[in-house]
Amino acid sequence: MFQKKRFYVDVKKNWRGRFMKIAEVGLDGRKSRILLTMTAADDLKDKILDLANVYTEIMASNAEGSVDSSRHVSKIDGVVKSHTLNYPHRRYYLDLKKNAWGYFLRVTMLSTSTRIKLAIPAEGMRELYNSICGLLKTWWIPAPDKSKKEVNLPPSRAFRVDSRTLYFDSVVNRHGVFLRISQVWASSRSAITIPGRSIGRFREIINELADHISAATIEDKENCSNNELQDGKTDETVSSKILEASALETTFPE
């Protein structure tokens, strides 16, 4: 229990196998839960340990009074350091943050249609790490994944389009290497997966469509400009005729 909140770390089992659940229970009894495969939990604990070490360094610096810890904090959202974990159906964000009450760890799970957040006081990060390590040691035997070690995957990429964000992630599993393109907006998420052997053809189609769309955009702009010029000439002609008619009326009144 930390700051009157209770946290639980459990290993569960369903028809797919064992998985880990981390739950936060507030004062009002409301629960927030994030679910992880055992492999994801193993990756998560390493990120938690890294952020716990950062927090320890900050506290040591504050005690010595040698370093201003505020310089490491983002002025926008109070983030000190972040990590992201990407998996086929889930994405996890770990943020060491600071607010008026102190430092805390924000863990966010983003799945197809849900976004779950946990807020863990920074002083509880090492205990959370130890709990995950203990459960993994008891209930999980990591399977060797030689293919993952041998493949050098490029880093994930992302960019924002209007109110949506597109993510490009390289994924490797026992079936091979894939490119996963995800579209995320609000609390919704959709994705497509392209086998590595088809990336070349996929790129050719994208390049071809991009050329045609760019050309069509240029033509539309030119047509709009020409139409505006023609409209301008028409307006000038009409104005001239009106002026001529006015002149005639002035010269030859009825």
Automatic annotation (TrEMBL):
<dbReference type="GO" id="GO:0000981">
    <property type="term" value="F:DNA-binding transcription factor activity, RNA polymerase II-specific"/>
</dbReference>
<dbReference type="Pfam" id="PF04845">
    <property type="entry name" value="PurA"/>
</dbReference>
<dbReference type="GO" id="GO:0005634">
    <property type="term" value="C:nucleus"/>
</dbReference>
<dbReference type="GO" id="GO:0032422">
    <property type="term" value="F:purine-rich negative regulatory element binding"/>
</dbReference>
<comment type="similarity">
    <text>Belongs to the PUR DNA-binding protein family.</text>
</comment>
<protein>
    <submittedName>
        <fullName>Transcriptional activator protein Pur alpha</fullName>
    </submittedName>
</protein>
<dbReference type="GO" id="GO:0000977">
    <property type="term" value="F:RNA polymerase II transcription regulatory region sequence-specific DNA binding"/>
</dbReference>
<dbReference type="InterPro" id="IPR006628">
    <property type="entry name" value="PUR-bd_fam"/>
</dbReference>
<keyword id="KW-0238">DNA-binding</keyword>
